[in-house]
């Protein structure tokens, strides 16, 4: 396990009643943008929820930002330094975008003298500057998602966890959001769960592919692309190259029986 890792997970098992969502997973991540990929039900949300400290592991060890997250006090300290966008999140519909993001800044203990500027900067960074004083209930679904991203980055987190952040964003916003991700990943450890391979091709330095609660592939995006081999189609796009790598890695992980087995690396 890399000693400089900001996320170090060993033997992580998460069970929901009889379902094993994560099966003794080992994972180590450092700064950069990590695309978290996998089929429906692979365990992506279960993993992000444990990393966000909102769900407890059934067993295993989870070290975040150099601290074991098992202790209550440690979790509180970690939360100040992380940002989290859940797949679905609640908000007071009568809050303005500014109030919504400021409330999270307060929860994260952003110093009061710095909070107003931090809120404005986060809202501007997601392209909602002109709607900062609009009430949440008047926003479109994609705008609510962007407000959700703003609350996740308001404390300049060292660990940023985004569960399907591009769902509902229009194409222009997706392009801008990917640029923001790349910028955030120069300093922070960013984990983005997504089904959109375009997100991975455009914004992720690394990929972790999970299936049936186990790691099927982990490495630089270029390595996943290389696994897919040369394009059969002339002028194949970077997106189709990631798709081929994804499929090849999953098939190798499943083996000839078609069932998941040990990870590739
Ligand atoms: N609250 C729950 N109760 C029971 N089973 C659950 C619960 N949450 C998740 N599961 C199960 O755990 C497994 C992993 O689910 P999880 O949501 O982590 O997958 P995912 O990779 O995020 O899926 P998707 O791509 O569909 O969002 C699935 O089999 C799912 O049905």
Automatic annotation (TrEMBL):
Residues 229-265 are annotated as: Disordered. InterPro entries: AAA+_ATPase, ABC_transporter-like_ATP-bd, P-loop_NTPase. It comes from the Bacteria. Residues 7-237 form the ABC transporter domain. SMART domains: AAA. GO terms for molecular function: ATP binding. Pfam families: ABC_tran (PF00005). Signal peptide: none annotated. The keyword Nucleus does not apply. Keywords: ATP-binding, Nucleotide-binding, Transport. Belongs to the ABC transporter superfamily. This is ABC transporter ATP-binding protein. It comes from Streptomyces tanashiensis.
């Amino acid at each position: 396990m890399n000693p400089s890792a900001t996320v170090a997970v060993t033997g992580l098992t998460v069970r929901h009643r009889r379902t094993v969502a994560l099966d003794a997973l080992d994972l180590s991540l450092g700064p950069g943008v990590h695309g978290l990929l996998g089929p429906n039900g692979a365990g992506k949300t279960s993993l992000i929820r444990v990393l966000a400290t909102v769900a407890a592991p059934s067993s295993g060890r989870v070290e975040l930002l150099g601290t074991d997250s098992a202790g209550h006090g440690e979790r509180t300290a970690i939360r100040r330094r992380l940002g989290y966008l859940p797949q679905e999140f609640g908000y007071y519909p009568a809050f303005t975008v500014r109030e919504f993001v400021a409330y999270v800044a307060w929860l994260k203990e952003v110093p009061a003298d710095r909070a107003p500027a931090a809120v404005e900067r986060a809202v501007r960074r997601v392209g909602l500057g002109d709607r900062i004083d609009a009430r949440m209930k008047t926003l479109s679904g994609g705008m609510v998602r962007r407000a959700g991203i703003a609350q996740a980055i308001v404390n300049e987190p060292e660990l940023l966890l985004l569960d399907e952040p591009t769902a509902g964003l229009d194409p222009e916003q997706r392009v801008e959001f990917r640029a923001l991700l790349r910028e955030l990943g120069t300093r922070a450890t960013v984990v983005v769960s997504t089904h959109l391979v375009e997100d991975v091709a455009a914004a992720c330095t690394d990929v972790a592919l999970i299936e049936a609660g186990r790691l099927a592939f982990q490495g630089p995006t270029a390595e996943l692309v290389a696994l897919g081999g040369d394009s059969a189609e002339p002028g194949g796009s970077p997106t189709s190259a990631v798709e081929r790598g994804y499929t090849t890695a999953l098939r190798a992980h499943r083996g000839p029986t078609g069932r998941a087995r040990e990870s590739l690396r």
